[in-house]
Amino acid sequence: ISASLKSGQLREGQASSSSAAAAVEEEKEGKKENKVVVCARCHSLRHYGVVKRPEAEPLLPDFDFVAAVGPRLASPSGARSLVLLLADASDFDGSFPRAVARLVAAAGEAHGSDWKHGAPANLPRALLVVTKLDLLPTPSLSPDDVHAWAHSRARAGAGGDLRLAGVHLVSAARGWGVRDLLDHVRQLAGARGNVWAVGARNVGKSTLLNAIARCSGIEGGPTLTEAPVPGTTLDVIQVDGVLGSQAKLFDTPGLLHGHQLTSRLTREEQKLVRVSKEMRPRTYRLKPGQSVHIGGLVRLDIEELTVGSVYVTVWASPLVPLHMGKTENAAAMVKDHFGLQLQPPIGQQRVNELGKWVRKQFKVSGNSWDENSRDIAIAGLGWFGIGLKGEAVLGLWTYDGVDVVSRNSLV
Ligand code: GDP
Asked: Is beta strand 81-88 parallel, antiparallel or unpaired with respect to 194-198?
């Protein structure tokens, strides 16, 4: 599959239906020399640039970057490796490619701390690229704050001493930050470097690489697959012409993050959960014994509170309904409303399919009702911003295996 894909450019809507039909016939009859057997999905991608059966479940297994690319990162030949770690601004912790970041951090740690004058040439370097910045309520955020916040979340995600060569806040959709990123990548890659773009499925990698290619003056040249269906970039693909004569840019397949809620949702459910426009806050004032639901996916209970009430702001897709009510009625909500009024999941039978409903407890403290003190972020969905004075004990319910983290507040 990889050989056949590498040999052909993946472009949207290139083949006419008659040439595509002829290709199918040729493949059936094995007329062409060196014919490679491809699955239906790859065939669709190769010949049409799109997946023909969007209702089908993702067929691709996860891409193991650490095993596939890891050994090539520390290059004894002197060709510098640069990893672009992509994370979605609207789901930073869920989408951050932490296994790859850990690999980069571990390489640095193994080398010791003795590199005041820049990283040694054979150590991989990394740039953090925060995508889809336009989804954040940018007018009320300072770029410096987002920058520092993203840096600290990346270090937390890497769980070690991740040294970043830089942090870029970009929106490929709006063209924000793409030129700066390209300039920095070119500078770090030098004449012969290898650059690897890495990110979870749907992080916006294809859109960004297309924007970078356009920015570097490539029109009608190598265009990557850009599809509303996540995970449609297959195998490692070299993007020619972007970095200069000998430096190479590689696009890697989108990583499958089982800890992101979206990874267990159907296409229809994903459409409800995915954020496509600038996020808008929905705020509740809650007292102990009250709960707020995000669809049939997550519930936050105020279990204990030392002072007054707590302000809970939901940052999630506006297509997912919220419900506020008494915690004592929450069990009935699951039975009577999950999958119906509270979607996703779509349909009551999907509730059990999503997994066991489990609780995590968080203790948070703060000193202002006007500002959020903490975020409770749910991978693949969004987050609750918590504004309070004093201390609170919060219960967060979601499906087993979905990552939930308490973090410094973003907004
Ligand atoms: P990939 O799976 O990482 O290659 O992701 P894609 O590039 O296919 O993008 C996934 C989805 O995010 C698509 O619906 C894109 O239109 C959308 N997207 C990509 N970049 C941006 C961006 O900068 N802003 C917004 N709002 N949406 C984006």
From this structure: parallel
Residue 339 in contact with residue 361, Cβ under 8 Å? no
The predicted complex's ipTM stands at 0.99
Q: Which amino acid is at 86?
A: L
CB-CB contact of 106 with 153 (8 Å): no
Ligand 1 centre to CA of 187 (Å) is: 26
Is residue 262 a part of any domain in this protein? no
Tell whether ligand 1 has an atom less than 6 A from the beta carbon of residue 257.
no
Q: Is residue 249 domain-resident?
A: yes
The answer as to whether 60 is a domain residue is no
- List, for residues 99-132, the tens digit of each pLDDT value: 999 999 988 777 665 555 565 667 899 999 999 9
The one-character DSSP state at 102 is H
> At 106, is the secondary structure helix, strand, or coil?
helix
CB of residue 202 inside a 6 A radius of ligand 1: yes
Number of domains in the chain: 3
CA atoms within 13 A on the CB side of 318: 8
| Mutational test site, ligand 1, from 84, 170, 178, 202, max ligand atoms within 8 Å of CB | 202
Residue 199 placed within a domain: yes
Nearest-CA neighbor of 20 among 44, 38, 52? Answer: 44
Write down the H helix ranges in 295-397: 330-337, 349-353
And the tokens for 47?
């010949």
Ligand 1 touching residue 253 (CB < 6 A) = no
For ligand 1, the distance from its centroid to the CA atom of residue 330, given in whole angstroms, is 35
Examine the domain organization and report whether 234 and 276 are in the same domain: no
- Report which protein residue has its CA nearest ligand 1's atom 4: 206
Is any atom of ligand 1 closer than 6 Å to the C-beta of 204? Answer: yes
pLDDT tens for each residue of 245-267? 788 899 998 999 999 999 999 99
Same domain, yes or no, for 106 and 210? yes
Q: What percent helix, strand, coil does the chain show, rounded to 5?
A: 30, 25, 45
